[in-house]
Amino acid sequence: QVQLVESGGGLVQPGGSLNVSCTTSMNILNVWRMGWYRQAPGKQRELVGIITSGGTINIADIAKDRFTIARDTAKNTIYLRMNNLKPEDTAVYFCYAFDRGDHWGQGTQVTVSS
Question: Is the pLDDT of residue 2 over 90?
Fold first, then answer.
């Protein structure tokens, strides 16, 4: 059973920074793609960014130049590092992995508000 466990969400003021992490039961070097999606109330889930098993990172336009993805292969953990957060970044952030199928974490709430 593949497990993806997110942590690190919370409340942050506009312009602030926040990091969320995702730890998996898999060896992330063998996982073709991992990354982050988000879903705001009343909206569809959207891609935030992806990191491949080779370490290539692609960030969606909605977060380019503000967010980045990092990983710690020893901990089988990926991170989403968010800077210059805006109220429209408020959403539940989901960790995603593709390994012989789609796998999702339970989500972590990020709220950007003053």
Answer: no
